[in-house]
Every structure is written in structure tokens, then in C-alpha cells.
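On clarity, I found the account of how folds are encoded harder to follow than it need be. For illustration, here is how one protein appears when written out as sequence plus C-alpha cells.
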Amino acid sequence: MTYEEYLDEVTTLLTEKYDLIDAAAIKHVMRAQAADFFTLHDDHPELRTQENAVLDAKKIFEQKNKSRPEAFHGRTKTPGK
């Protein structure tokens, strides 16, 4: 699937699996995209699978209440750095 189709699929999964309204799902996917969560998907088409879309939707849903973009990548910052 194309990069745009992949983002649409992740958005759809957020609405179907996690009962988010369309606007909220779109907002969370756009935030993840702004935080470079999908950068590798853009560069490597083989990552754009249904299985990865399910995993990415889950990760985005789990991180949806976090305000720091680095939360999408599981990185933590050391205080003072």
C-alpha cells in the first residue's frame, strides 16, 4: 500500500478497534507523523503491511495521552540533558 493508504489504515484501525471518532484518530495519526513516527514507513514500503498497521495503531493509542513526541518512539530523556 502507498504511504497515504498506510496512514489511512492506521487511522481506520484507531476508529474501529479503539472507538475513537474520526477527528480524534486523524489528530493522533497526524501528531505521530509530526513526531517522525512514520519516517521509516515512508522510506521502506515493505513496512506498510496490515500487521504493522495494527501494531502502529496500538502504539499510537497507548501513547495518545502523552504530550511529548518522543513518547511515540519509547525514548526517555535524562533530566538535565
Summary: Residues 73-81 have pLDDT under 50 and may be disordered. The longest helix spans residues 3-17.
